[in-house]
Amino acid sequence: MKNLRTIIAVLLIMAFGSTTFAQEGKTLKRKVAIGRFTNETQYGKGIFYDRENDPMRKQAMDILSSKLAASGKFILLERDDLDVLVKEAGTEMQKTGADYIILGSITQFGRKTEGDERIFSSTKTQTVEAAVNVRLVDVASGLIIYSDEAKGQAETSSKTTLGIGGTAGFDATLSDKAISAALTQLVENIINKCMDKPWRGYVLTVEDGDYVISGGASQGITPGSKFSLYKKGKMVNNPQTGANVELPGKRLGQVTVTANFGDTPETEISFATYEGEKIDEDHLELYYLMEE
Predict the structure, then answer these.
(1) Strands 143-161 and 121-138, sheet pairing
(2) Residue 205 CB neighbour total at 10 angstroms
(3) CATH 3.40.50.10610 residue ranges in the chain?
(4) Reading across the β-sheet that carries 121-138, which strands appear in turn?
(5) pLDDT score of 155
């Protein structure tokens, strides 16, 4: 019987990994706010053009949202006009409730139709080309940590022989496909940049010995989750780049989650206990939480 239990345990570890490994492999979801996508091209802009209802802008936002959601690594928060907040102080950006902000623009868009006429046959090809630029902003620092542009193309063809064959009219889906092809080249880099930096959370308040922290079940924070509590490092200015750099913080202790509260990603919080050095409860903005 003992040998049988050993064999079963080995098989379970082979199939699912050890409990420790499973916990270490657990990934906390990052909160990403998709800001305004702008259409910087002149395509389709007539006298009655409405910037707020630009169809290509909405296409790009929807496609990017779908691709990021499919990765299972993010909670998506749609926030408009975030490009204004990016110019403000870091504390203003943190009001978005996001870890990262994505700003983007469609910089090129073109549609062309080409034909090839022969004696007995003719071919018609529609091609759409699009270029998309994205910027990824780290809310905590206010810095743009990733910026890139990619191009995508989509086409469809029809052929007739002796007057017999299919005909291709205006294909409105080509713009979706071209924008999607461009964004596909950028999404993997966006995901990697967001996941490279350890997850951060914050202590919101302390009530009767209970520590209330940011984040909840939708991010993967559950009762029993443990985080290290740090005091923020000094902020220094790098004269070579002009950027402010936060020095590494000092670890003070450990926070253990006891319960979750909240119905949506925006309102979720967690209750926790704390063991470690005493902290200044009147200045909780000096502290942050990180994955262990």
Answers:
(1) antiparallel
(2) 11
(3) 27-196
(4) 74-78, 30-39, 100-117, 121-138, 143-161, 164-165
(5) 85
Please identify, in words, the CATH class of the domain defined by 27-196: alpha beta
Distance CA 225, CA 102 (A): 28
What CATH number should be reported for the domain whose range is 200-291? 2.40.10
Element containing residue 286 per DSSP (H, E) = none
Higher pLDDT, 57 or 20: 57
Residue with tokens 């993997």: 188
Q: Residue 125's closest CA among 140, 113, 138, 110?
A: 113
Residues contacting residue 236 through CB under 8 Å, at least 6 positions apart: 244, 245, 247
Angle at alpha carbon of residue 217, lines to 286 and 257, rounded to 5°: 55
Structure-block tokens of residue 139: 């809310």
pLDDT at 109: 87
Q: How many Cβ atoms sit within 10 Å of the Cβ of residue 176?
A: 17
Beta bridge partners of 85: none
Please, where in the chain does CATH 2.40.10 lie?
200-291
Chain centre to alpha carbon of residue 287? 24
| Pairing status of strand 143-161 against strand 203-207 | unpaired
- Give residue for tokens 């071919």: 123
Separation of alpha carbons 253 and 57, rounded Å: 46
User: What are the phi and psi torsion angles at 30 (to 5°)?
Assistant: -90, 145
pLDDT tens for residues 191-207? 999 888 888 899 999 99
Residue 12 binned pLDDT confidence (cut-offs 50, 70, 90): very low
pLDDT at 2: 41
Q: What is the pLDDT of residues 203-228, one digit of tens each?
A: 999 998 899 999 999 999 999 999 99
| Distance in angstroms (rounded) separating the CA atoms of residues 196 and 205 | 28
Spell out the SS3 assignment of 188-239. Answer: HHHHHHHHHCCCEECEEEEECCEEEEECCHHHCCCCCCEEEEEECCCEEECC
